[in-house]
Amino acid sequence: MIASSVNVIHAVWLDPFSPLQAADRAQLDAAGISLETVSTLGDLTLALRRAHVLVIRLGDSAELLQEVQTLIAQLGHTVPVLCRVERRRMEVAVDAMRLGALHVLPADEWSAGAWQDAVKGLNAPELKTKSYVFVDPTSQHLLALAQRVAQTEVTALLVGPTGAGKEVLARVLHESSPRAKGPFVALNCAAMPEHLIEDMLFGHEKGAFTGALKEHKGLFEQAHGGTIFLDEIGEMPMQLQAKLLRVLQEKKLNRLGGEGTIDLDVRVIAATNKDLKLAIEQREFREDLYFRISTFRLRIQPLKDRPGDIVPLVAQSLARHVKGGVPFTVTEDAQALLQSYPWPGNVRELENVVQRAVVLCGGRTISPAHLMFDDAAMDDQALPAVHALPAASVMSALNEALAQAMPVTPEVQTPAFTAAVAAMAPIAMRDASAPVNLGHAVKASEHQVIMAAIQSTDSRMEAAAKLGISPRTLRYKLAQLRTLGMSEGVSA
After folding, report:
1. DSSP letters along 356-403, please?
2. In whole angstroms, what is the distance from residue 333 CA to residue 485 CA?
3. What is the pLDDT of residues 341-368, one digit of tens each?
4. CA–CA–CA angle 390, 400, 327 (5° rounding)
5. 130 — phi, psi (to 5°)?
6. Sign for the pseudo-dihedral over CA of 192, 158, 165, 168
7. Contact between residue 328 and residue 321 where contact means Cβ atoms under 8 Å apart
8. Could you tell me which of 125, 146, 148, 237 has the C-alpha nearest to residue 189?
9. pLDDT in tens, 421-443
10. Helix, strand, coil fractions of the chain, as percent rounded to 5
């Protein structure tokens, strides 16, 4: 029986080895899969806009998978890829899964059951793909796995470092699930005291305590028919963990001061950056609650371990700063520096660096001189990438940044400024006996940009805001510059 059009999976079919036979197409139609065949990578551009999944045939290697993943990323899509592989090419199937393939099927497999299992859930409500970045093969594999988990009602535990994008993945799980039209409600369990968390989660009745002038529906009730996301669940107080466990087990709750029970229809997603098993050993987290929330664990890698996401995340962040007009561009040297940086603060730190670059560049081109990292100690870790850049590129970028930040006038030609210019001069123009210190040159450039911001604003707070850093970070950097001898115009 042919599946109804509502449940049809629209697949793009790319097989460079043999044409699709009519009988095989009919079997896939019966499985609810509508095919659009293409013969070259060029034909994919338009076809991918309408596809739930791309089906490709691999030969002796997974090279074609890498090529189509690159093309999909360039087009700004997140279409999952299903691979067909000869049964004797087990090593190719393993490589395909490692590279992030949604599923791998034998090339001679045509049974409806196998294909329906492989594409299950792909016609769920469409993701807002432009809001999320899953370009690196590691991220694409995580996305495909998340979309499968989303089709079930299991409780998911997202594990990963702070700032890596756990809430983004939680939203993907929600938007890919049958609950997508329901509410998505989030709570950071570390952001408020215990008594407030209990009231926020479970609500209260009118008169339950002094000041309770009306009933309050907790987040579990507000998320009815949808998803509740409990971030930093490892920070939840032990007393509340017991009450949360009971709610998860019984799918009912009692408001504070209430007598009756309230039935719940909620999908729970939790997240943590802690080692919960260690917390269990230290009696900081309940073991029974851990097993209740970790039915399916999804681990989000640090940003440094998924370098393919870095430049697309930068482009996405820059796009938010474009309000009409010419979009921002990032030079190849700046891209190389961004990809070599270890990103200890993950995506949050990347957002900060991009905002500072927008402030510093003045125009629409981001160069290495506009990249100002959060931790001064980390600047030194990024310096090997700067050493690898052509000297002319570095000098051009530094000079451009200085010219945009603070034009040279007699009033600002202080000894510190003269020293900074000398430090950044091309090696061929220096005295042969002068020491070459690229780290000092970078600090000198930072000094001039900071001084430009201070001189163009009325207070240190305004200068810090213009630079995209906190007043405390500004004070820290000024103190560092003083220790380097760049004390002209710098006061506490």
Report:
1. HHHHHHSSSEE-GGG---S-HHHHHHHHHHHHTS-HHHHHHHHHHHHH
2. 29
3. 999 989 989 999 998 998 888 788 888 9
4. 95
5. -75, -10
6. negative
7. yes
8. 237
9. 444 343 333 344 444 455 666 66
10. 50, 10, 40
Distance CA 81, CA 487 (A): 57
Instruction: Please count the residues of the chain.
Output: 492
Rounded Cα distance between 124 and 179, Å, is 10
Strand 103-106 versus strand 81-85 pairing type: parallel
pLDDT in tens, 128-166: 444 678 888 888 889 889 988 998 889 999 999 998 999
Q: List the structure tokens of 329.
A: 């561009």
Residues 6+ apart with CB under 8 A from 379: 373, 439, 442
Coil, strand or helix at 471: helix
Please tell me the distance from the alpha carbon of residue 100 to that of residue 85, in angstroms, as a whole number: 15
Cα gap 57→481, rounded to integer Å: 58
Sign of CA dihedral 18, 23, 27, 29: positive
pTM: 0.55
Given a cut of 60, whether residue 224 has pLDDT beyond it is yes
- Is 51 in contact with 10 (CB distance < 8 Å)? yes
Neighbours of 384 (CB within 10 A): 10
